[in-house]
């Protein structure tokens, strides 16, 4: 007999891994023990050498779908005289590594069970097994055992305990295991102050939804606000109460077939929609979808997702129609996640609140994804993905906290060879959002038992994330340039070290020359960057106000393209903006009064979109740019002219010729779709020309396409097509290309700058 200690790291807790190891050991003839530990799972196995070799091979080859083995390490240990293989209690001593998986969508077995009248869990909204159910959002510590979850207060009944103890049962060691006799229960708070019984709560909620009501529904990581997605009046009421004018709502449907009736779904999009993570997937809406126009009033896209909890399945089954399922909050506030908080904050928004008595330990909003030019891409990385770790090709020397950006904030903690994103926080525009940000950081630090002594932050001094970093005591602060962080995040996602040519296009990022960057070509490594090319800046009259009143950016483009004297009839493209307002903005630009310079490619989208679509204002970030992208005529192949000034470093892209050509087209009543296509083609062409010229100058480095603008499929796919035949193009998939992804890059840059000297 031989003895081996097998230490496994990865996502191996909360997914039925120990029971699976137990059954494998019994099948192949191994004795010994398996236990959770703070860094994953440890197996002490005893058998002949040939049996141990087979055991280890099958561990790595046939692991569970929800598990992820990142590292398996074997060491010899003395033989022990044992006659069985057992599952031991968890070991809480030692260095921590977060091996809790993300929350897992309801498996098919559990779904069938809750819909079968002959099963004891028929209609039970908290059914789960080792293959599915809550994980991260109920975890209060590690190792992941029931005592370290919000299920600790629910004592299993005899039937559930028998399942939990039965190695042949799919609920063997399923930590959240429960049933109607011993587990959490539903209740419904109604406007009349009465609470429905657990038996009637779901039926009453469904009946209210069917009558056009708004119901707050407690899910895994927080509350949704739900209403009938086919009822325009109901959706309008929700918009008015939530103060969300036009930004699209996500819609939950009961099945893939129901989704296919509402949207055009390709195979790669279907794979996203049905994945265990159950993200919201942005899809092209069918014209005959039957959804209320108010769901997504100004876009042809609709965000669909499938049920991921038994409660969702039961509610959709009862209502039998698509439901708006949007974060339960007032715009710009964090999602509600506690019962009392929901009662207080959602008063006047929801007609009723469908509650339960299982606490949520960590709020975690829905993830959002889209297939962008053939690549499945996360646009918001949260529920279903957090806290799945990223494994670093170069370990950090000390734990690092990266505070992320101001908009679409997520933070990141890197320690050793792993990095963990926190849940989606959102825009740090309110005290409530900042409180959530601080609370989420503290909880992740507690779970990991780490207090990072390096804190990375954006260079912008006004960002709340930067202020938070500077308020921390006894840490080394590292300011990181926004677009450098974008590029290094993408490098880390691909496990790439060395140097790349980063193409970082977005709306805004604090630049070291006093202007706002966002049209940057950077020679990047983790340690440093060199700015090789950028875009000619435009003036944002009114600063941030210009992002909402996008006609100001349109006028700035006209003013710059025509040397301060645009043709009088071009001003009509600004729509119903008063001459007085235009004159005021003109003076602000010419006097450089509250009119900062911005180089962001996203601002060109806003400005030209405003001119071509007659959209003077934007009610949410990116609204006009998205509309400008969607109208583009795919049959148009020619491009507007541009110039590149190479007389100094960085080179500067001059799009004034493109603006003048676009204005000529618009004055000649050329369709906006043709204008959009020529503008997109110009951006593709100028980027490809820059890359090829810089390759000639600096060598053919890998090209990293990053930043929020690369959520635009025309641009991402077009540039990749133009240059991929020469070299590898890196694009995002599991790290968002927008600001929700920069924290990973911040962490690695800070560590690279400080090394072991910090």
Write the layout of secondary structure elements.
Blueprint: E1 2-11, H1 17-28, E2 31-37, E3 40-47, H2 49-61, E4 68-77, E5 85-87, H3 108-114, H4 158-165, E6 186-190, E7 195-196, H5 198-210, E8 215-218, E9 223-228, H6 232-242, E10 250-252, H7 256-262, E11 263-264, H8 267-274, E12 280-285, E13 301-305, H9 310-319, E14 323-327, H10 339-345, E15 352-356, E16 368-372, E17 375-380, E18 390-391, E19 400-402, E20 412-415, E21 418-421, H11 431-448, E22 454-458, H12 464-471, E23 476-480, H13 482-493, E24 500-510, E25 516-524, E26 529-535, E27 538-539, H14 545-548, H15 551-561, H16 579-591, E28 597-598, H17 601-613, H18 623-630, E29 643-645, E30 651-654, H19 656-667, H20 672-698, E31 703-706, H21 713-723, E32 729-730, H22 742-754
Helix pairs in contact: 1-2, 5-9, 13-22, 15-16, 15-17, 15-19, 17-18, 19-20, 20-21
What does this structure look like?
The chain is α/β, with parallel strands linked by helices and 758 residues long. Among the domains are: 2-87, Alpha-Beta Plaits (2-Layer Sandwich), CATH 3.30.70.100; 186-356, DHBP synthase, CATH 3.90.870; 368-497 and 738-754, Nucleotidyltransferase, domain 5, CATH 3.30.420.360. It contains 22 helices and 32 strands. The strands form 5 sheets. Strands 6, 7, 8, 9, 10, 11, 12, 13, 14, 15, 16 and 17 form a 12-stranded mixed β-sheet that branches. Strands 29-30-26-25-24-31-32 form a 7-stranded mixed β-sheet, with helices on both faces. A 6-stranded mixed β-sheet has the order 18-21-20-19-22-23, with helices on both faces. A hairpin with a 2-residue loop joins β2 and β3 (40-47). α5 packs across α9 and α15 crosses α19 (656-667). It is globular, with a radius of gyration of 27 Å. It starts with a strand and ends with a helix.
């Amino acid at each position: 007999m031989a003895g081996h200690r097998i230490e496994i790291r990865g996502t191996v807790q909360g997914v039925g891994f120990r029971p699976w190891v137990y059954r494998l050991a019994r099948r192949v003839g191994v004795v010994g023990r398996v236990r959770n530990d703070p860094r994953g799972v440890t197996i002490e196995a005893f058998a002949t050498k040939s049996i141990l070799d087979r055991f280890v091979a099958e561990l790595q080859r046939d692991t569970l779908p929800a598990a992820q083995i990142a590292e398996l390490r074997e060491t010899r240990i003395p033989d022990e005289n044992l006659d069985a293989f057992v599952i031991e209690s968890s070991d809480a001593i030692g260095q921590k590594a977060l091996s809790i998986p993300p929350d897992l969508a309801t498996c098919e077995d559990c779904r069938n069970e809750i819909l079968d009248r002959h099963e004891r869990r028929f209609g039970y909204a908290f059914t789960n097994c080792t293959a599915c159910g809550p994980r991260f959002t109920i975890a209060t510590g590690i190792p992941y055992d029931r005592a370290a979850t919000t299920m600790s207060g629910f004592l299993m009944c005899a039937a559930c305990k028998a399942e939990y103890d039965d190695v042949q049962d799919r609920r063997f060691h399923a930590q959240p295991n429960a049933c109607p006799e011993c587990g959490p229960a539903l209740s419904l708070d109604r406007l009349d102050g009465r609470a429905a019984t657990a038996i009637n709560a779901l039926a009453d909620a469904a009946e209210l939804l069917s009558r056009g009501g708004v119901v707050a529904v407690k899910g895994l990581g927080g509350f949704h606000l739900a209403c009938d997605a086919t009822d325009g009046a109901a959706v309008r009421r929700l918009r008015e109460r939530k103060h969300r004018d036009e930004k699209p709502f996500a819609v939950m449907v009961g099945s893939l077939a129901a989704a296919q009736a509402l949207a055009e779904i390709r195979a790669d999009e279907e794979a996203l929609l049905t994945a265990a993570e159950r993200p919201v997937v942005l899809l092209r809406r069918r014209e005959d979808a039957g959804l209320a126009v108010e769901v997504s009033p100004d876009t042809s896209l609709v965000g669909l997702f499938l049920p991921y909890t038994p409660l969702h399945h039961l509610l959709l089954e009862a209502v039998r129609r698509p439901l708006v399922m949007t974060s339960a909050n007032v715009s710009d506030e964090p999602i509600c996640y506690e019962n009392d908080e929901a009662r207080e904050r959602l008063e006047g928004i929801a007609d009723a609140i469908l509650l339960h008595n299982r606490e949520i330990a960590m709020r975690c909003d829905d993830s959002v994804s889209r297939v962008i030019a053939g690549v499945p891409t996360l646009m918001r990385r949260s529920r279903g993905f957090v806290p799945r770790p990223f494994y670093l090709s170069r370990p950090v020397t000390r734990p690092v906290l990266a505070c992320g950006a101001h908009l679409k904030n997520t933070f990141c903690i890197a320690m050793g060879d792993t990095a963990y994103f926190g849940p989606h926080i959102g825009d740090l525009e309110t005290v409530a959002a900042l409180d959530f940000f601080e609370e989420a950081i503290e909880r992740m630090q507690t779970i990991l038992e780490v207090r990072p002594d390096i804190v990375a932050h954006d260079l912008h001094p006004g960002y709340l994330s930067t202020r938070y970093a500077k308020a921390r005591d006894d840490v080394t602060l590292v300011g990181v340039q926004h677009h450098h962080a974008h590029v290094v995040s993408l490098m880390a996602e691909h496990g790439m070290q060395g140097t790349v040519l980063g193409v970082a296009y977005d709306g805004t990022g604090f630049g070291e020359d006093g202007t706002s960057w966002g049209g940057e070509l950077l020679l990047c490594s983790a340690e440093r960057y060199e700015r090789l090319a950028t875009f000619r800046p435009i003036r944002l009259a009114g600063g941030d106000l210009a992002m909402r009143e996008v006609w100001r950016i349109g006028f700035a483009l006209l003013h710059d393209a025509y040397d301060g004297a645009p043709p009088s009839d071009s001003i009509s493209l600004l729509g119903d903006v008063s001459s007085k307002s235009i004159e005021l903005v003109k003076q602000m630009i010419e006097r450089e009064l509250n009119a900062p310079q911005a180089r962001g490619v996203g601002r060109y989208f806003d400005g030209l979109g405003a001119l071509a679509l007659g959209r003077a204002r934007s009610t949410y970030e990116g609204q006009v740019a998205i509309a400008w992208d969607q109208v583009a005529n795919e049959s148009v192949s020619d491009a507007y002219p541009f110039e590149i000034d190479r007389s100094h470093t960085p080179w500067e892209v001059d799009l004034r010729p493109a603006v003048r050509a676009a204005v000529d087209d618009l004055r000649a009543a050329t369709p906006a779709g043709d204008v959009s296509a020529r503008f997109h083609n110009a951006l593709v062409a100028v980027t490809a020309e820059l890359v090829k010229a810089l390759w000639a100058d600096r060598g053919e480095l890998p090209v990293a396409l990053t930043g929020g603008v690369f959520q635009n499929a025309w641009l991402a796919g077009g540039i990749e097509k133009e240059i991929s035949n020469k070299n590898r193009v890196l694009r995002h998939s599991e790290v968002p290309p927008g600001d929700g992804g920069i924290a990973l890059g911040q962490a690695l840059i800070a560590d690279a700058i400080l090394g072991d000297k910090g």
